[in-house]
C-alpha cells in the first residue's frame, strides 16, 4: 500500500445550518486518511455522522473547520470540484434517486457528457463500465424496469465511467433484498481486487468483515479503528455503541467463554467451521475416539 493517501480528512468539523441562528453540530475534529487500494468500512449508530463524513470525501459537503484534500486538491476549491468528483465517486442509498435518464446507456453517459467526453471515448467507457458491473445486456433497457440491485449496479457503472480511483458507497445495499446486496458486494469485491479504493458506510457487519480497515463513529467522532478482527474483538465497547458484530464473532466469543482453547478472534463463518475442526473434531480423530 502506498504511503500517499488519496483522501486526507484533516481536523474536520461540520454543522448543518438550519437557519440563521440554529445549527446542528455533527462532525467534531475528525481526521482520517484513505490510502490507494484499501477497503475501508465506516460504521456507527444512526446519527453518528457516517453519511455526513462520507459526503465530505468528494466535496458534496465542505467542512466548517479543517480541510479535505483529494489527491492534493482541497475540496473548498469550487472551480476544481469536478476533478475531485471524477476521482472519488459516490453511490447512495436509494437506487431510484440516482437514475437520471430513460435508457441505461444514457444514464451511464450522464457524467461523461457533463465533462464533454468525445463520442468514441464515451462509447468505450460505457462498454467498460457496464461490463464491469455485469449489466452490458441491459444497455438499451429503461432503468425503471430494473430491480433495485440492478439500478445500483447502473449507478456504480455511471461512476466507473468517470474512471475514479475511489468509490464511496453510502449504505448502498441497505434498500436491497439479499440478491441485490449479494450482486453489489460481488461487484465491489471484484473492483477492489482490481485495485479500486473502496469506502463503504454500512450496518451489515458481514460486509464490514471483508474490509481492510474499519472506522467506528459515535457523536461525530472516530472512537475506534483497526482491522475488522481488532475492532470486532471489542465486543463490549461495540455493544455500548449499540453496534452489532458478525455472527462468527459472537459465536466465537460465546464458545471461547466456555472453552478457552477456542479462539475468540474469528470474523468469518468459515473460520468458525475451521476452528471447530481444529479444537474438537481433529483431536477426537487423533485419539481414535
Ligand atoms: P449517520 O449516517 O451516521 O446516520 P448522518 O451523518 O446522516 O448520520 O447524520 C448525523 C446527524 O446530522 C443526525 O443527527 C442527523 O439528524 C443530522 N442531519 C443529517 N442531515 C441533516 C440535514 N440535511 N440537516 C440537518 N441535520 C441533518
Offer a concise description of the structure.
With 289 residues, this protein is an alpha/beta fold.
Structure report:
This protein is α/β, with parallel strands linked by helices. The protein has a single domain, classed as P-loop containing nucleotide triphosphate hydrolases (Rossmann fold). Helices cover 39% and strands 22% of the residues. It has eleven helices and ten strands. The chain has helices at 50-56, 81-87, 104-114, 119-132, 148-160, 178-193, 205-208, 228-232, 235-240, 247-258, 269-287; strands at residues 7-17, 23-34, 39-44, 65-70, 73-74, 88-91, 166-170, 197-201, 213-218, 221-226. The strands form two sheets. It has a six-stranded mixed β-sheet, sandwiched between helices. The protein has a four-stranded antiparallel β-sheet with strand order 2-1-4-5, with helices on one face. It is globular and about 70 Å long. The structure holds adenosine-5'-diphosphate. The site of adenosine-5'-diphosphate has 11 residues, from strand 2 and helix 1.
Q: What percent of residues are in strands?
A: 15-25%
What characteristic shape results from the CA principal axes? globular
Associated small molecules: adenosine-5'-diphosphate
Gyration radius, in Å: 21 Å
Share of helix among residues? 25-40%
Please report the number of helical segments.
11
CATH architecture annotation name: 3-Layer(aba) Sandwich
Order of helices and strands: EEEHEEHEHHHEHEHEEHHHH
Top-tier CATH class: Alpha Beta
Can you tell me the number of structural domains? 1
Amino acid at each position: 500500500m502506498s504511503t500517499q493517501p488519496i483522501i486526507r480528512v484533516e481536523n474536520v468539523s461540520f454543522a448543518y445550518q438550519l437557519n440563521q441562528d440554529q445549527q446542528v453540530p455533527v462532525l467534531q475534529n475528525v481526521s482520517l486518511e484513505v490510502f490507494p487500494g484499501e477497503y475501508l468500512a465506516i460504521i456507527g449508530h444512526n446519527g453518528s455522522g457516517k453519511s455526513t463524513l462520507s459526503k465530505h470525501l468528494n466535496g458534496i459537503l465542505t467542512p466548517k473547520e479543517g480541510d479535505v484534500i483529494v489527491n492534493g486538491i482541497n475540496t473548498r476549491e469550487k472551480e476544481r470540484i469536478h476533478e475531485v468528483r471524477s476521482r472519488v465517486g459516490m453511490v447512495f442509498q436509494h437506487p431510484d434517486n440516482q437514475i437520471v435518464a430513460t435508457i441505461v446507456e444514457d444514464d451511464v453517459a450522464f457524467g461523461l457528457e457533463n465533462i464533454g467526453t468525445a463520442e468514441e471515448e464515451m462509447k468505450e467507457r460505457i462498454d467498460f463500465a457496464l461490463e464491469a458491473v455485469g449489466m452490458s445486456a441491459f444497455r438499451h433497457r429503461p432503468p425503471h424496469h430494473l430491480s433495485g440491485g440492478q439500478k445500483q449496479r447502473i449507478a456504480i457503472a455511471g461512476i466507473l465511467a468517470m474512471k475514479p480511483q475511489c468509490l464511496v458507497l453510502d449504505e448502498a445495499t441497505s434498500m436491497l433484498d439479499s440478491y441485490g446486496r449479494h450482486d453489489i458486494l460481488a461487484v465491489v469485491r471484484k473492483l477492489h481486487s482490481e485495485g479500486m479504493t473502496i469506502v463503504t458506510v454500512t450496518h451489515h457487519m458481514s460486509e464490514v468483515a471483508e474490509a481492510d480497515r474499519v472506522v467506528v463513529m459515535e457523536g461525530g467522532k472516530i472512537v475506534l479503528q483497526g482491522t475488522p478482527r481488532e475492532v470486532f474483538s471489542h465486543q463490549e465497547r461495540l455493544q455500548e455503541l449499540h453496534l452489532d458484530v458478525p455472527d462468527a464473532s459472537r459465536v466465537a466469543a460465546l464458545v471461547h467463554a466456555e472453552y478457552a482453547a477456542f479462539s475468540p478472534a474469528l470474523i468469518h463463518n468459515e473460520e468458525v467451521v475451521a476452528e471447530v475442526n481444529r479444537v474438537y473434531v481433529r483431536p477426537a480423530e487423533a485419539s481414535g475416539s
